[in-house]
Amino acid sequence: MLSTTPKSAPLKSFLLKVVFFFVIATAAIAGSFFLDDPVSQWVQAANHGHWSHKPVAEMLSHYGDWPELMLLGGIGFVIAWRLRNVRWQRLILAAMIASTLAGMTVNLSRLTTGRTRPRALAEQGWYGPKHGEKWLIGEADFNSFPSGHTATAFGFAAVFLFAAPEWGLLAIALASAVAISRILLGAHHPSDIITAATVALGIAWLVWEFLGRRGRVDGVIRYPRDSGSAD
Fold first, then answer.
1. Which of left, alpha, beta for 187 (phi over 0: left; psi -120 to 50: alpha)?
2. CB neighbours of 62 closer than 8 A, spacing ≥ 6?
3. Where does the chain have alpha helices with state H?
4. Phi, psi of 86 (to 5 degrees)
5. Cα–Cα distance measured from residue 108 to residue 102, given in angstroms and rounded to the nearest whole number
6. Is 85 helix (H, G, I), strand (E, B) or coil?
7. In 3-state terms, what secondary structure has residue 157?
8. How many whole angstroms separate alpha carbon 182 and alpha carbon 58?
9. Are the C-beta atoms of 156 and 175 separated by less than 8 Å?
10. Domains of the chain: which residue ranges?
11. pLDDT tens profile 84-93
12. DSSP-based three-state secondary structure for 176
């Protein structure tokens, strides 16, 4: 009878978590497509047949993208560095990396799916990277799936959720507000949002697992004293 060695136990646990996440993520993404039409109809009905143009939604959409998140992260990293807080230096750096990787992953997909945005004047559908003689890569109205704003926002916020839940819940709430603003503005379908958030959560977890593994003992993250030097 095979026994689980101490070295193989963490790997087995890691693989089980990956499989569990993949199953839940697949179900969430598949189910999200059933929300597209009802949510779009509700948003337009609430805005008298139009998409929302409320200042709050436009502000969240504008300032919730990758450049602003990197600026915020950079400021936070400098503050943590000046305070010699190694834990927060690592956490913020991981959040910036996760946000960037999530955005890159999603953008590689959405540039080729050819899915129309809800507010696009073209007939709704999936046109792929090329429709007829026209390339749709880079055509904003045909680059809806998944949502880049959502991926970068959730990639950034999810690291805090995994590493510092007391701050992570607030970060996820703000990321969710960015995602909802994209639906209200007609920039994305709910399935675009949920798919991007799911991908970002997975990437953020992997980034934190690998970056946070340094300093772990028996599966517990042990940080050096915040007042100490870099480890």
1. alpha
2. none
3. 8-32, 36-46, 55-63, 66-82, 86-113, 148-163, 165-184, 190-211
4. -65, -40
5. 10
6. coil
7. helix
8. 8
9. yes
10. 51-213
11. 999 899 999 9
12. helix
State how far the Cα of 118 lies from the Cα of 124, in Å rounded to an integer: 7
Residue 91, token pair as written in the block = 């956490």
Positive or negative: CA dihedral 135, 149, 146, 52: negative
- Type of residue found at 23: V
User: Which of 118, 111, 112, 107 shows the shortest CA–CA distance to 150?
Assistant: 107
Please name the helix (run of DSSP H) or strand (run of DSSP E) that holds residue 131, with its range, or none.
strand 130-131
- Please give the single-letter amino acid code of residue 98: A
Query: Residue for token digits 């969240």?
Result: 60
Alpha-carbon distance 83 to 128, whole Å?
Answer: 49
Tokens of 204: 């953020």
Residue 7 has pLDDT above 90, yes or no: no
- Kindly state the tokens that stand for 97: 């990396």
Instruction: Read off the amino acid at residue 75.
Output: I
Q: Which residue has the tokens 């390339």?
A: 135
**C-alpha span between 93 and 87 (Å, rounded):** 10
pLDDT of 96-129, one tens digit each? 999 999 999 999 999 999 999 999 999 999 999 9
CA 98, CA 204: separation in Å to the nearest integer?
5
**What is the C-alpha separation between 231 and 213, in angstroms, rounded?**
13
**Tokens 């000046």 belong to residue:** 82
